[in-house]
Amino acid sequence: MSTVVRPSLIEIAPQSMRPTALPDHVYAVLKQRILSCAVQPNERLIEKKLCEELRISRTPLREALNRLSHEELVSFQPHAGYRVAGITLAGFRNLIELRSIVEPQAAALAAERATPGDIAALRAQATLPYDPSEDRSFVQYCQANSRFHLLVVRCARNPMLENIVMSALDMYQRPTYLRIGRQMDPGNPSSKHHAIVDAIEQHDAEAARKVMYRHIRGGGERIMTALRDARIA
Amino acid sequence: MSTVVRPSLIEIAPQSMRPTALPDHVYAVLKQRILSCAVQPNERLIEKKLCEELRISRTPLREALNRLSHEELVSFQPHAGYRVAGITLAGFRNLIELRSIVEPQAAALAAERATPGDIAALRAQATLPYDPSEDRSFVQYCQANSRFHLLVVRCARNPMLENIVMSALDMYQRPTYLRIGRQMDPGNPSSKHHAIVDAIEQHDAEAARKVMYRHIRGGGERIMTALRDARIA
DNA sequence: ACAAAATATCTTGTATACAAGTATACAATC
DNA sequence: GATTGTATACTTGTATACAAGATATTTTGT
Fold this sequence. Notes:
The structure is a homodimer. Chain A folds into two domains: 7-84, Arc Repressor Mutant, subunit A (Orthogonal Bundle); 89-230, Four Helix Bundle (Hemerythrin (Met), subunit A), CATH 1.20.120.530.
């Protein structure tokens, strides 16, 4: 393949993702498009079109699509192709259940294992930027929220938990985004976040668990009713 | 590709896996070889050799290898190739932690949601076949144990939890197998399994959670000390 | 006009050729 | 003798051609 620049790959990739190899590039770009709803849920993904658009061949593209389908961000049927994963109420309910199982326990472990440096990082990320007057801030808000939750899990020092939560947060992003796009009150979670950091700072595992549980359940319920009302899923 | 039979693909694939497409075949065969330690931990996996051996091309093989590396059963470095994942004490500790977070909660949900049919299926799978005189029964024992734990999670009616536990059980198999292969007492878990089914049958979520937690922690600790003593990891 | 079947087109599935990067072995030098 | 540079062989990375299966359309029969 030639060494021409691929402008379409530079795009809006967030600084958190630092792809190096071609399949990673493609994966990051497609994931970004999906999570930001730049491509609609259930929209079909045609290999050939994506290849031409991204100026790559099918091999690295398919690798990226396979990864995305494993993370259930795209659905796949043999010989029938790939689609952007749909958003369903049942799926979101399962997602909330998963998060409310894993993250509170991870927060409890974080309370036991977090270093002073960890706690400073958490505190810095606890307050979310949210400015209703700017449209662009929606996506940034979601991403900042994800970063905080990921940072908490990271304090538990268990990469397996980290991967699970990372994937769960990715799946959580679209419903959050759709809901905020319609109903302007994100129910500012910054205070909850600071309460979680407080508990971790005091090494109070039980408190960290409880606050995180209530935070996830509360936010999840609000998004779920919004989705139901808007008949999105 | 020609339509000749591929004898190497039929092999020892367990009946639980029903692969249809070529990448699924390959995935199942490789996974089986890895989990049964037919290929050693850290052993290198050369694409060309596997292609010739399995009579397939590199495309479906690479798809299978990618899946396996995503499940952390094989490790991968760009341009340096694939290896069977190694077994480390830290990794196993993380795995126990993950299981002891997810499975007890899943058991609690199972106690709330299991149908009479579910409970009958659990009861049927609770007693594990173990005959120390037969070498072959080791693998079967491990698989039967995995099936029981998977069946419990299935009662929670949450496919995401199911996938996580399925992957965790796969990763758990090799340490279990290695340990039993050295030290003959598997510490018969059948009684614990029946206690779990009892709790689920009585819809006692709290009891189900506690028994499952102790079961996983106990078994995990025993395997971990055995690994440490044998200097496997 | 409606339904069913056949065909044409499009999409994915697999194989393979070629490009690029890595590791190893050997030789030269310190 | 150890170490570093270099060349070669080997392995993976990407692209593309061809095969097989699915879908949509059209045509034909009732």
